[in-house]
Write a structure and sequence with these properties.
Layout lengths: L2 E6 L5 E5 L2 E5 L17 H6 L21 H45 L2 H9 L4 H6 L8 H7 L10 H4 L2 H51 L3 H6 L2 H19 L1 H23 L1 H48 L1 H6 L3 H54 L6 H20 L1 H22 L20 E4 L3 E4 L2 E7 H39 L1
Parallel strand pairs: 1-4
Antiparallel strand pairs: 1-2, 2-3, 5-6
Helix pairs in contact: 2-7, 2-10, 2-14, 7-9, 7-10, 7-15, 9-15, 10-11, 10-14, 10-15, 11-13, 11-14, 13-14
Length: about 525
C-alpha cells in the first residue's frame, strides 16, 4: 500500500513522502501587494481617518495601450488624423471669414465712391443714379473712361473693378460653398473622431477587465487573506473606468484642441506675423485662465460629490437599520450626524459657485483685454501697412490666434484624464502581471496517472498570511475544541445549579406563605 505523510522539519519546510521518496515544498510567503491587514474600526474612527494618498506612480504613455491589438492601433491612428483635421476646421473657417470681410468692405468702398459729389454728379449727366448702379454695377463700366477724363484722372474705376465685373456675388457664392463644405466636414469628422476612439477604448477596457479578473481568480487563497476583496472590486470597477476614460474620446479631444492651436498659429504667421506675435504674448494668460477654471471647477465638484455621497451613505445606513435606531432612541443623533455631513456639502457647493464666478470673471477680463490689445494694434497695422494688413486680414489673424490660444486651454481636461488613467493603470497592470505562488494553470511538475492509498498528517502546522505570528495546527485545534467543551460544561453546570437552588428557594418561600 502506498503511504503519504506530511511533517515539518526544523526549517519549517513541509516534507512529504510517497513510497519512500521525499521532496520539500517551501511554505508560501504572503504577498505584500494591497496589504490592508485586518483592523477593526468603528464609524467615528472611519470618519476621522485621513484619506489615503493617491498613487503617484504611473505607467509609461505607450504602456497604457499595451492591450491594444492591430485593429485598435489602426482605429487610434485614424482617430488622431481625424481629430487633427477636426481641430483645423475652425481656423480654416476663420480664413474664409477674413476674405469675406474684405469683400464686404470693398462693397462699402464702392457705395462710398458712388455717393461722392463728383461721381454722383457725373452719374446724372449720363442718366444714371446711385441706386441703379448699386443694383447693376456693370452699367457703369462703359462710362469709366469718360469719368477719368472728366475728373483729370482723380476718379477712376480701378478701385471698384471687382464690383463692375459682378465678381462680388460670384466670390460670395464661392465662399458660401466653402462654409457648407467645412460644416459638412465637421459633422463627419466629429462623428468619426468620437466613434473610433470610443470603439478602441471599449475593446481595450474589455480585455483589461477579463485579464484582471482571470488573474485574480488564479491567485492562491493566502493572497485573499492579505488583500481586501472590496479593494479588488474597486480596482475592477473604478480604476478600469478611469483607464477607459483615458483611452477614449478625451484623447481625441485633446488632439483636436492642440491641432486647433497649431492651425491658428500657422494661419496667423502666414497672414500677419506681427499681430500674431502680439496676440501670442497674451495667450499664456488665456491658457492659464481656461485651465485654472477647468481645474478648480472639477476639484470643487469632486469635493461636493464626495460630501453628498458621505451624507447619502449615512442616510442609507440609518434607513436600513431604522428599527435599531428607533429602539435605542438614536433619531436625534443620526439626524445631527446627517445634518453635519450635509452642511459640508453645502459649504463646498458655495465655494464652487464663488470659485466659478471668480474664474469666469478673470477669464472674461483676459478675453476683453485681448480684444483691446488686438484691435488697437491691428488698426495701427492697417494704417501703417495697408498693403500687408487689410481689415479682413487683421480680423482673420486675430481670431485665428485668439481661438487657437483659447483652444489650448481646453485641451487640459483630456490630458488630465490621461494622467489619471496612467496612474490607475499602474496598480491594475501590476495585479494583472502578478504571478501567483500556487499557479493552478501551471502545466509543470510531476503528475501521477493514478494515486491510491492513505494520507496521514503528522505535526502539520501553518500560519495565516494575515497573522504570521500565530501558528495553527491539529494540536491547537484540538486544544481549542477542548477548551470550548469545558466552557460549555461549566455553563451548563452553572445553569443546573441555579435551577436547583431557585427551586429550593421557591419551596421555602411557598411554605412560609
Amino acid at each position: 500500500m502506498r503511504r503519504k505523510s506530511y511533517e515539518l522539519n526544523s526549517n519549517n519546510n513541509a516534507v512529504y513522502t510517497i513510497n519512500g521518496s521525499s521532496s520539500k515544498s517551501e511554505i508560501v510567503k504572503p504577498p505584500d501587494e494591497l496589504d490592508t491587514g485586518r483592523e477593526t474600526i468603528n464609524q467615528d474612527d472611519l470618519e476621522a481617518k485621513p484619506e489615503k494618498k493617491e498613487n503617484t506612480q504611473v505607467v509609461g504613455f505607450f504602456t497604457l495601450f499595451r492591450f491594444a491589438d492591430c485593429l485598435d492601433i489602426t482605429l487610434m491612428l485614424i482617430g488622431c488624423f481625424v481629430a487633427m483635421l477636426h481641430g483645423a476646421a475652425y481656423p480654416a473657417l476663420i480664413y474664409v471669414y477674413g476674405d469675406s470681410i474684405d469683400i464686404f468692405i470693398s462693397t462699402g468702398i464702392f457705395e462710398k465712391f458712388l455717393k461722392s459729389d463728383v461721381v454722383s454728379g457725373f452719374l446724372g449727366t449720363v442718366n444714371l443714379t446711385v441706386e441703379s448702379v448699386l443694383k447693376q454695377p456693370p452699367i457703369l463700366k462703359s462710362h469709366c473712361e469718360y469719368l477719368s477724363n472728366l475728373t483729370d484722372g482723380n476718379y477712376t474705376c480701378d478701385v471698384i473693378q471687382p464690383q463692375l465685373t459682378n465678381q462680388l456675388l460670384d466670390q460670395m457664392s464661392t465662399y458660401t460653398y466653402y462654409y457648407i463644405i467645412i460644416g459638412c466636414a465637421v459633422i463627419v469628422l466629429g462623428y468619426l473622431q468620437i466613434t473610433v476612439w470610443m470603439t478602441s477604448a471599449e475593446r481595450q477596457a474589455h480585455r483589461i477587465r477579463l485579464e484582471f479578473f482571470r488573474n485574480v481568480m488564479r491567485q492562491e487563497i493566502g493572497w485573499f487573506d492579505t488583500n481586501d476583496t472590496g479593494e479588488v472590486n474597486s480596482r475592477l470597477a473604478d480604476d478600469i473606468n478611469k483607464i477607459h476614460d483615458g483611452l477614449g474620446d478625451k484623447i481625441g479631444s485633446s488632439i483636436q484642441w492642440i491641432s486647433a492651436f497649431l492651425a491658428g498659429c500657422i494661419v496667423g504667421f502666414i497672414n500677419g506675423w506681427k499681430l500674431t506675435l502680439v496676440i501670442l504674448s497674451i495667450s499664456p494668460l488665456l491658457i492659464l485662465a481656461s485651465a485654472l477654471m477647468s481645474k478648480l471647477a472639477g476639484s470643487m465638484t469632486n469635493k461636493e460629490l464626495k460630501a453628498y455621497a458621505k451624507a447619502g451613505s449615512i442616510a442609507e445606513e440609518v434607513l436600513s437599520s431604522i428599527r435599531t435606531v428607533i429602539m435605542f432612541g438614536g433619531q436625534k443623533l443620526e439626524a445631527e450626524r446627517y445634518t453635519t455631513n450635509l452642511s459640508d456639502a453645502k459649504k463646498y457647493g458655495i465655494r464652487k459657485s464663488i470659485t466659478n464666478g471668480l474664474c469666469m470673471g478673470f477669464l472674461s477680463f483676459i478675453i476683453m483685454a485681448t480684444y483691446s490689445l488686438g484691435f488697437w494694434y491691428g488698426a495701427k497695422l492697417t494704417v501703417d501697412e495697408p498693403d500687408n494688413y487689410t481689415a479682413g486680414k487683421m480680423l482673420m489673424v486675430f481670431y485665428a490666434v485668439f481661438v487657437g490660444s483659447f483652444s489650448l486651454g481646453n485641451a487640459s481636461p483630456g490630458l488630465q484624464a490621461m494622467s489619471t488613467a496612467r496612474s490607475a493603470a499602474y496598480t491594475v497592470y501590476k495585479l494583472i502581471d502578478k504571478v501567483p505562488s500556487i499557479n493552478i494553470y501551471s502545466e509543470t511538475g510531476v503528475k501521477p496517472d493514478t494515486l491510491t492509498g492513505h494520507i496521514e498528517f503528522k505535526n502539520v502546522q501553518f500560519t495565516y498570511p494575515a497573522r504570521p505570528d500565530v501558528k495553527v495546527g491539529a494540536t491547537q485545534i484540538i486544544l481549542y475544541l477542548c477548551k470550548l467543551l469545558l466552557y460549555i460544561i461549566f455553563v451548563l453546570k452553572c445553569i443546573n445549579y441555579l435551577k436547583v437552588n431557585l427551586y429550593k428557594l421557591w419551596l421555602v418561600f411557598k411554605s412560609i406563605i
